[in-house]
Amino acid sequence: MFDRSITITEFEVKDIRYPTSQELDGSDSMHTDPDYSAAYVILRTSDGHHGYGMTFTLGGGTNVVVEAVRLLQPKLLHKSLHDIFTNYRAFYRSLTQDSQLRWLGPEKGVMALAAAAVTNAVWDLAARMQGKPLWRFVLDIPIADLVAMVDWSYTSDAISEDEVVAMLEDLLPTREERVAEVEKGGYPAYITSVGWLGYSDEKVKRLTKEKLGEGWTAFKMKVGVSLESDMKRARLLRDLIGPANTLMMDANQIWDVNAAVSNMKALAVFRPLWIEEPTCPDDVEGHYAIYQGLREQGIGVATGEMCQNRIMFKQFLSRNAMQFCQIDSCRVAGVTEVLAIMILARKFGVPVCPHAGGVGLCELVQHYAYLDYFMISGRMDDRRCEYAEHLHEHFTCPVEIRNARYVLPKEPGFGAEMTREAVETYEFPTGTFWREFLA
Length: 439
What we know:
The chain is α/β, with parallel strands linked by helices. It has helices at about 60-70, 80-85, 90-95, 110-130, 135-140, 145-150, 160-170, 175-185, 200-215, 225-240, 255-265, 285-295, 310-320, 335-345, 360-375, 420-425, 430-439; strands at about 10-15, 35-45, 50-55, 185-190, 220, 245-250, 270-275, 300-305, 325, 385, 400, 405.
C-alpha cells in the first residue's frame, strides 16, 4: 500500500484556541464559556507529504493534551506508513497500551485524546498519499484487512471478528449504489448552532428563521439551566419550527437521573426526539433508567460524545441505555475504534447519529456518517449527522452543506488541515490574536 522507504520525518503539535466564548458560541448548561480549541498535529514525510490531525478541547487544558501528544511522538517518528499499516493493530496498541503511559488511562482521558489526534493525522496522511478522501480510502481497504486493523480487545463477548467480516461482506455488493446516492443527494443533517444556551431569545429567533429558510427541518436546543427557562426556550423553538419539524434536546450531563426523568416529562409536550447526555456520561444504568422513565413519552436517550472508548459503548449498547449512538471523531482513539463502535451499534440495532458540535468536528465526522451508511448499516433513514455553523472558514477544505445535507467531499484526506492564517492567528499563546488579547 505504501513505499517502505518513505518515513515520517517531522512531528509537530500546536495548541490552537478560538475565542468562541466571546459570542457564547457552543455554550451549554455545563460548559458556559467554551473556547473551541484543538491539539493540532502535523506530520511530514521524507518525500514531502503532510498529514493533519486534531482532537477537540474547550480552551483551558489544551496544553495538557499537547504534552500528552508529545509523549506519543517516538511511536511515529522515523516510521513508515508501510510498517504502520502492515500491522496497524500493533501500532494502535503501542499508543493505547504502552506499559507506562496506559496508567494515565487506560484508553480514556487525556491519553485517549492524544491518541485521537495522532491517529487522525496518520489516517489523513495515508489518505492524502493515496489521493483519496478518508471515506474512500477506508472503503478501498479489503474487508478482512480492515477488520484485522481494529483492536477488538474487551469486545469479543459482544461480537466476533468473523461476525464483523460477514456483516461487512453482506453490504459489499450494493456499496457503490449507496455512494452514488450520497454523491447525488448528500447525507441528512440536523443543526445545533441556533440553540446555544447563552444566546438571547432574539438571536435564537433570527437564526432559526434563517435556517428554516435554508431548508433545515431538524433542530437541537440546549437545556438544563432551569425547568422554567427550558420550557420557555422549547416553546419558542417549537413555535418557530412548527409541528412537522424535528426537535432534539441536549442537557450536557447537568442532571441526576431522577431530575432528568422529571424535567423531560415536563418538556415532553414539545415532542423532542431525544434527550442527549441527560446525566453523567459514564452512568450506563442511569441512562437506562432515564430511557425506561421516558418510554411512555416516546423520548429516546442519545449519548456518546464523551463516552470514553469502545468498551463503554459496548455496555451502553448491550444494556439498551442509548437509543441514538453519538460517535465523535476526536474523543476515542481514532478511525479504527470509531469503526468498532459503529459496528457494535449495528449489532445492537442502534442508529448512529454523529456528534459534531466543535471546531473541526464536522469536517472529520462526516466521513464516519458516510462509512456507516456505505459499509456498516446501509441506512440513513433513521439517522442524521450534527452540524454546527462555526469556524469552518479556518480549514483548507471546509465542510459543505447543501439543502440541509452534507455534501460528499472529494478532496484527499480527512479534512483536518487548518489554514496557515488560522494557525498564525490562534496558536496559543503566541498567535497574533492571543498576543494582543493577553497583553
